[in-house]
What we know:
Elements: E1 5-8, H1 18-33, E2 37-42, H2 52-65, E3 74-75, H3 80-92, E4 96-99, H4 103-116, H5 138-146, E5 152-155, H6 157-164, E6 168-171, E7 181-184, E8 194-196, H7 204-214, E9 219-223, H8 229-240, E10 246-250, H9 270-275, H10 280-287
Parallel strand pairs: 1-2, 2-3, 9-10
Antiparallel strand pairs: 4-5, 5-8, 6-7
Glutamic acid (GLU) binds next to loops.
Amino acid sequence: MTQPVFRFAPSPNGYLHLGHAYSALSNFDMARASGGRFLLRIEDIDTARCQPEYEAAIYQDLAWLGLTWEEPVRRQSEHLDGYRAALAKLEAQRLTFPSFESRSEIARMIADRDVRERWPRDPDGTPLYPGAARMMAEEERTVRIVRGEPYAIRLDVERAMEWAGPLRWTETGEGPSGERGEVAADPAAWGDVVLARKETPTSYHLSVVIDDARQGITDVIRGQDLFWSTSVHRLLQALLGLPAPNYRHHRLILDTEGRKLAKSTQATGLRELRAQGVTAGDIRKLVGL
Ligand code: GLU
């Protein structure tokens, strides 16, 4: 049997809170219990929001929780070439297209469509991409690219799904509506997702599937808020010929008002709790481990 490999993959765009502690400890405990490996990955592709200070805090907070991880830690910002190469492969398969619109142009298109009937939203509540860039004539694309106009690269989800056929994943946790077992992926629910941003040659979805494969991750344990993202991850894995890990999505730790925790919430931040004299053992109890 292959040795299980688990990972915790935070983004250094804020301080860790109880929800992160729950994910990190769950992965670490499962790795220990199964004789597996535990890896840490820093998801720092968003240079505008990620900061060295938050990355340093991640190491401190996890060490305080009693976690150890293998070195070197994989930092996504150091692997942009790998993401570019994967993107080039999808482009060569004609499964992507450049989209030149600005955020405000997209917002305007949605507002127009919402007047007629509510335009569909993705599982996170963001309106699906409405643009017609997918249909843009090859010459116009070339002219705009040569002119130096910035563009994002989107997945042509319809073509990609045709190419990949139906997909499922094995869920050993639970989705927001109790989904478990063999779950049918529904990538169309996300529309033509962004694979590379104007300012970054990758996106969360693209880098996460490449890294999970590169790091040989066999088991992904993460919050239920990412449950439906797995549909896009499965599609990208199929397109790029990457193996699918097992997925276990866990319940979210909510604040006292029942809201999802935000990185800025002082009351549940690990550093704030530590400063108040809470111990790592108390954190385990607080998250129900
Ligand atoms: N970096 C993501 C986050 O901090 C987690 C990615 C994942 O576990 O797939 O929300």
